[in-house]
Design a protein that fits this description.
Layout (H helix, E strand, L loop, with lengths): L12 H17 L16 H6 L1 H16 L5 H15 L2 H13 L4 H9 L8 H14 L6 H11 L1 H23 L5
Helix pairs in contact: 1-3, 3-9, 4-5, 4-6, 4-7, 4-9, 5-6, 7-8, 7-9, 8-9
Length: 184
């Protein structure tokens, strides 16, 4: 890891406020995923984001807005996030979201398939289209009209937009995680 977790006691007021808000958020939303060390410092993508707050705080705000306005079912979100994490080989993203996917009810086989870059057989229609859209975008390709229109029909325009922004957010997180070599 290129940026170590930052002890909250050493942060300035602005960064400490963000740390504390993130801490509250992940305590409520990340359930079984451990994202703090023994000293109470955030781990995962948070150390680089807090070490470079001029970039990290706006990125966190974007990700948080996706949580605050989430309409996608949790399992659909996890399909998209694991698809992005796999495409980028983001180890921490995979660690955290393999746990979350199991927590939300995916079988170990489905989680293993997603982490290996394959579409699980057990996906429902919404999950399957999320996998397709996330796979296309994670490869840096334009979503074909047929796929976009099918996703719009299945998810609705607003929810499809949320999915596309979610894929973008987790692409950003995967890039940060990989750039700073963040480990689980």
């Amino acid at each position: 890891m290129r940026v170590n977790p930052i002890n909250p006691e050493t942060m300035n007021d602005e960064v400490r406020y963000v740390h504390d808000e993130v801490f509250k958020l992940i305590t409520n939303s990340q359930g079984p995923v451990v994202m703090t060390n023994n000293e109470g410092a955030l781990t995962g993508p948070f150390p680089p984001m807090l070490a470079f707050p001029q970039f990290g705080i706006p990125a966190l705000s974007f990700v948080r807005s996706l949580d605050n306005y989430a309409t996608l079912p949790k399992k659909v979100r996890e399909v998209a996030i694991l698809t992005v994490g796999t495409a980028f080989g983001a180890r921490f993203e995979l660690y955290a979201h393999e746990i979350m996917a199991k927590h939300f009810g995916f079988s170990a086989t489905a989680v293993a398939s997603l982490a290996a870059g394959f579409r699980p057989v057990e996906l429902n229609q919404e999950e399957a289209i999320a996998y397709e859209i996330a796979s296309i975008l994670a490869k840096g390709r334009i979503v074909p009209d047929a796929s976009y229109n099918l996703a719009k029909e299945i998810l609705g325009q607003e929810t499809l937009a949320e999915l596309i922004f979610l894929v973008g957010a987790y692409t950003l997180l995967a890039t940060v995680l990989n750039g700073f070599d963040v480990l689980p």
